[in-house]
Design goal:
Structural class: alpha/beta
Number of strands: 7
Pfam families: Methyltransf_4
Keywords: Methyltransferase, S-adenosyl-L-methionine, Transferase, tRNA processing
Helix content: 25-40%
Strand order of the largest sheet: 3-2-1-4-5-7-6
Shape: globular
Strand content: 15-25%
Catalytic activity: guanosine(46) in tRNA + S-adenosyl-L-methionine = N(7)-methylguanosine(46) in tRNA + S-adenosyl-L-homocysteine
CATH superfamily: Vaccinia Virus protein VP39
Radius of gyration: 21 Å
Order of helices and strands: HHEHEHEHEHEHEHE
Function: Catalyzes the formation of N(7)-methylguanine at position 46 (m7G46) in tRNA.
CATH class: Alpha Beta
Number of domains: 1
Distance between the termini: 75 Å
Number of helices: 8
CATH architecture: 3-Layer(aba) Sandwich
CATH topology: Rossmann fold
Largest sheet: 7 strands, mixed
GO molecular function: tRNA (guanine(46)-N7)-methyltransferase activity
């Protein structure tokens, strides 16, 4: 028999309410790192990879040492297109968000090899970076190129381009700024066009899909697809 006094039961305690988890548009996959990527992370990461700090607004002038139009890229993959665009538009500054470490290492390697000064990187969820660190009306543009299309219908809810996300995103684009999306999956292109057209603060720059802007390079994957007759759809909308 226990000698501990019996504790009175508190009838006011309510059962815990499960926390609703946000649906992620990405899955962090393991990837092999080459020696060049590992070296670039170690040597260039401290300079070009920015720390994620919730609630602390990014100061682009302090980061880049100048005032210039700021473009956010969400999910830059291995960074090849990002590097080319930054060189094509040297009067712009670019913030790239990518959760996959091999991609971060690959872009850092390009930055070092090609001496590209106008790119900085967040290795973090772009949605959280946007909400916590990017000031309203501060972006000249946003690039979302070939996001995961989540082909299966039951996974469509994971697609990044959804009404709720777009409504949050456009608040960070300055009036006259743009949102440029591209995809090689036609059902996703149709969804993008529907969602972006329904956002009242955006206006389409074209009648439907846009011609590929000159600054966006063709990727190796895209070139291969075009040769096989696969389509690519660009959408460019402006903030009112």
């Amino acid at each position: 028999m226990s000698d501990k006094p019996e504790q009175p039961q508190d009838s006011t305690v309510e059962p815990a309410v499960p926390v609703k988890r946000a649906i992620k548009s990405f899955v962090v996959r393991a990837g092999r790192m080459g020696t060049g990527q590992i070296k670039a992370l170690a040597e260039l990461g401290p300079r070009f990879v920015l720390p994620y700090q919730a609630g602390q607004r990014l100061d682009p002038q302090a980061v880049f040492g100048r005032q210039a139009p700021l473009v956010l890229e969400i999910g830059f993959g291995m960074g090849g297109a990002t590097a080319q665009i930054a060189q094509t538009l040297p009067d712009h500054d670019f913030i790239g968000c990518e959760v996959h470490e091999p991609g971060v290492g690959a872009l850092l390697k390009l930055i070092g090899e090609q001496d590209i000064p106008n790119i900085r990187i967040f290795q973090h969820d772009a949605v959280e970076v946007l909400e916590q660190m990017i000031a309203p009306d501060s972006l000249a543009g946003v690039h979302i190129f070939f996001p995961d299309p989540w082909h299966k219908k039951r996974h469509n809810k994971r697609r990044l381009i959804q009404p709720e996300f777009v409504a949050k995103l456009v608040k960070h684009i300055r009036p006259g700024g743009y949102l440029h999306c591209a995809t090689d999956w036609e059902p996703y292109a149709q969804q993008m066009l529907e969602v972006l057209s329904a956002e009242p603060t955006l206006v389409n720059s074209a009648e439907g899909y846009a011609e590929k802007p000159a600054y966006r390079p063709l990727t190796k994957f895209e070139n291969r697809g075009l040769k096989l007759g696969h389509g690519v759809w660009d959408l460019v909308f402006k903030r009112r």
